[in-house]
Amino acid sequence: MRGLVSLMAVALATLTTPAAAQEVISGTIRADQPGPVLSRNIQGQFAEHLGRDIYDGIWVGPDSTIPNTRGIRKDVVDALKAVKVPVVRWPGGCFADIYNWRDGIGPAAKRPVRKNDWWGGIETNAFGTHEFFDFAEQIDTDTYVAINMATATPASMREWMTYLTSTGEDTLAQERRANGHAEPFKVGFVGIGNEAWGCGGAQTPEYFANEYRKFATFHHKNGSTFHMHNDLSALRVASGPNNDDTKWMEVVLKEAGPLMDAISLHYYTVWHGDWTQRDTAMATGFPVSHWNEILYQAWRMDEVLRGHEAVMDKIDPKKRIGLFVDEWGTWYRTEPGTEPGHLYQQNTLRDALVAAGTLNIFHAHADRVKMANIAQAVNVLQAMLLTQGDKLAKTPTYYAFAMYLPFQDATFIPVSAPAPMLKAESGSFPAFTLSAAKAKDGKTYVAVANADKDKGYKLALDLGVLKASKVSGQVLTSAKLDAHNTPGQKEEIAPAPYRGGKISGGKLLLDVPAKAVVVVGLE
Ligand code: AHR
């Protein structure tokens, strides 16, 4: 019976939707009112010791027949380099709070093998500190190390940081050199705690704030006036709230705000916004009716951010403290036949719309949102890449990120056009969202994420002070709602040249197909 239900679902999801008359919607691009810089870190990634993210996904070991550099997959490195991954968070997630960094240094054969208590299976520790920083160097990215504050101590954090960064003659620096790395590693960000309200110790915000103060005190960050000697430059990120928990935000900021540079937020797109119902939603072969609900839950990111920003603005009006959405993305039922704890799911055109729509939301909140890390890089949740043996697939989410590359460190430009609202089971959401920015290459880029599965839209955006005569870009779409790519099979979905744009009478005219991501550059 279950097989029949899912077969019917596949049939429904693969139906092409009927062509419908397009509406013309007028809007404006306000290049005369530039906003904040869109931190490239908004396009950050997350790699956790979970399922096949690290092992199989990133690490195959130096003796593997799969092409690798010092054990790290070449195909994955090439693909991630191509999207200029700005920062990677590691080693978790919930895994971070059971991780002993000492397990992952020194000769591989001597490293202890542990049970992965969170996600199941065995942790060989073949991928540890040196391997992570090697991976980061290979893909040319900044590093965000999540330290264990639940089952480890401030002393353990301090020792790991010293091992990573010391330039002195101390024993930990010597140990790092003996393990093959003469120079200190570059640590960009340090996460103190992960989901402290949940897998990181089920703490109350009051208790966490005190614990955080203790850990942050021993971090000795440069610029801190508390210590006589400060030698760490990594920014400190406090474990922040889940979803709409503004009480967590308020208590932790009030009690520990001065000791942090950023606070994290976790928001996943799950069925009915209820994590316990996540198995209701399938990654592929979903009923047509599921499309809007998932897109609505993704759109809720905007409301969630507004709630937290209102609290942050009261306590930190100068916006010194960044909001890092260091886990976000879709969370569905795992693929049949895979280990449930490994969180392996396919990734479709719908996920690309979630990705592009969410990036548009982050851009609109860029005065506070300074980093975001989609979960996760390879083979877990809303992955960029899927691997099977020596085969690799680039997901529609990967392609959305690729199309948004020009937005990295670009300057936000307000753009608006009134989108009709679409109905889902739990609420309404705009049919499309937009972003515009002046990029570092001097061009202005406009992105449209049209989440309307039935209708395309003709947009007429007044260019205002913007001078442009040429439009070119890419479109990501498909006739199939659940178009996806599978390792070892011919690609079903990838960006194509976009031919629906022109400039006429001081307006940018865009003919945006249904269920499509469009990014254009103006010259
Ligand atoms: O991304 C998977 C898990 O989701 C992370 O380990 C945890 O932080 C969150 O609950």
Give the helices and strands, then pairings:
Elements lengths: L1 H13 L8 E7 L14 E3 L21 E2 L2 E2 H9 L4 E4 L23 E2 L6 E2 L5 H11 L2 E6 L6 H12 L5 H8 L10 E4 L12 H13 L17 E4 L7 H11 L5 E8 L19 H27 L6 E9 L18 H16 L4 E7 L9 E4 L2 E4 L1 H8 L7 E3 L1 E2 L4 E3 L4 E3 L1 E7 L5 E7 L6 E6 L8 E6 L19 E3 L2 E4 L2 E6 L3 E7 L1
Helix pairs in contact: 4-5, 6-7, 7-8, 8-9, 9-10
The structure holds alpha-L-arabinofuranose (AHR).
Rg calc: 23 Å
Strands of the biggest beta sheet: in what spatial order?
2-5-8-9-10-11-12-13
> Class of the largest domain in CATH?
Alpha Beta
- Counting DSSP E segments of at least 2 residues, the number of strands comes to 27
Bound compounds, each kind once, are: alpha-L-arabinofuranose
Enzyme class: hydrolase
GO molecular function: alpha-L-arabinofuranosidase activity
Signal peptide: 1-21
Domain Alpha-L-arabinofuranosidase C-terminal: 326-516
Offer a quick outline of the entry:
This protein is 24% helix and 24% strand. It is α/β, with parallel strands linked by helices.
Give a description of the structure.
- It is a single chain.
- By secondary structure, the protein is of the alpha/beta class.
- It folds into two domains: 5-36 and 414-522, Immunoglobulin-like, CATH 2.60.40; 38-409, TIM Barrel, CATH 3.20.20.80.
- Helix content is 24%, strand content 24%.
- It contains ten helices and 27 strands.
- The chain has helices spanning 2-14, 74-82, 129-139, 154-165, 171-178, 205-217, 246-256, 289-315, 349-364, 396-403, and strands at residues 23-29, 44-46, 68-69, 72-73, 87-90, 114-115, 122-123, 142-147, 189-192, 235-238, 262-269, 322-330, 369-375, 385-388, 391-394, 411-413, 415-416, 421-423, 428-430, 432-438, 444-450, 457-462, 471-476, 496-498, 501-504, 507-512, 516-522.
- The strands form seven sheets. The chain has an eight-stranded parallel barrel with strand order 2-5-8-9-10-11-12-13, surrounded by five helices. Strands 16-20-21-27-23-24 form a six-stranded antiparallel β-sheet. The protein has a five-stranded mixed β-sheet with strand order 17-1-22-26-25, with no helix packed on it.
- Helix 4 crosses helix 5 (171-178), helix 8 runs parallel beside helix 9 (349-364) and helix 9 runs parallel beside helix 10 (396-403).
- The N and C termini lie far apart (56 Å).
- InterPro entries: Alpha-L-AF_C, ASD1_cat, GH, Glyco_hydro_b.
- Residues 1-21 form the signal peptide.
